[in-house]
Amino acid sequence: MKKIIVIAFALFAMIPAKAQSLKFGHVNLQEVVYLMSEMDSARAQLERYQKDIQETYQSMANEFQNKLNDYQAMAANWTPATRQMKETELQEMENRLQQFQQSAQQEMAQYQQNLLAPIQEKAVNAVQKVGKAQGLIYVFDIAAIHWVDEKQSMNVDDLVKKELNIPLDKKITAAQ
C-alpha cells in the first residue's frame, strides 16, 4: 500500500513539471497565405476570370437594354401579337441574365476554391513542419482565437514565412 502511495505521489509530482514544459505556438495563417508568391499568381488569375465574367455579363446586359429601348420606342406601333412576342423575348433575356449571374457566382467561388486549396495546403504543411521542428504541441491560427499570451505561446509567423521563402520584411499594405 505504501508503494502505491509513493508511486501515485511521484506521478502527480511529474504532472506539473510536464505541463510547464508544454509549448504552444500561434500563426496568422491568413496573412502568411496572402503573402505567398503563389497568391500573386492566383489573384491575377482570379481577376482575369472575374473580368471575363463581367465582360460577358455586360454584353448580355447591353443587348437586353437595347432590346428594351427598342420595345419602348416601338411598342405603340406594334400589333398586340408582336408586342406580346417582344415582351416574352425580353422576359426570357432577363431570366438568362439572372441565371448567368447566379451560375457565374457559383463558378467564380469554385474557381477560387480550386486555385486557393493547394496554396492553403502548402501553408498548413509549412506550419506543421515548423511546429514539429520547434517541438510545439499545438500551433493555433490567431484568426480563430481571441487572445494570445505572447509569453507562453511562440509566434511562428516568421519561421513559417522562412519555410515558404517569403521575405520577412514583406507585409500586407493598406492598398492590398
How would you describe what is shown here?
With 176 residues, the chain is mainly alpha-helical. It is 72% helix and 6% strand. The protein has five helices and three strands. It has a three-stranded parallel sheet with strand order 2-1-3. The radius of gyration is 30 Å and the shape is rod-shaped.
Major sheet, described briefly? 3 strands, parallel
> Helix coverage percent of residues?
over 70%
**What sequence of helices (H) and strands (E) makes up the elements?**
HEHHHEEH
In whole angstroms, how far apart are the ends?
68 Å
From the helix content, strand content and strand pairing, which structural class follows? mainly alpha
**Backbone CA Rg:** 30 Å
Strand order of the largest sheet: 2-1-3
What does this entry show, briefly?
This protein is rod-shaped. Mean pLDDT is 87; it is low at 1-15. The longest helix has 55 residues, at 80-134.
Keywords:
176 residues, mainly alpha, 3-stranded parallel sheet, 72% helix
Write the layout of secondary structure elements.
Layout: H1 2-20, E1 24-27, H2 29-35, H3 37-74, H4 80-134, E2 138-141, E3 153-155, H5 157-163
Parallel strand pairs: 1-2, 1-3
Helix pairs in contact: 3-4
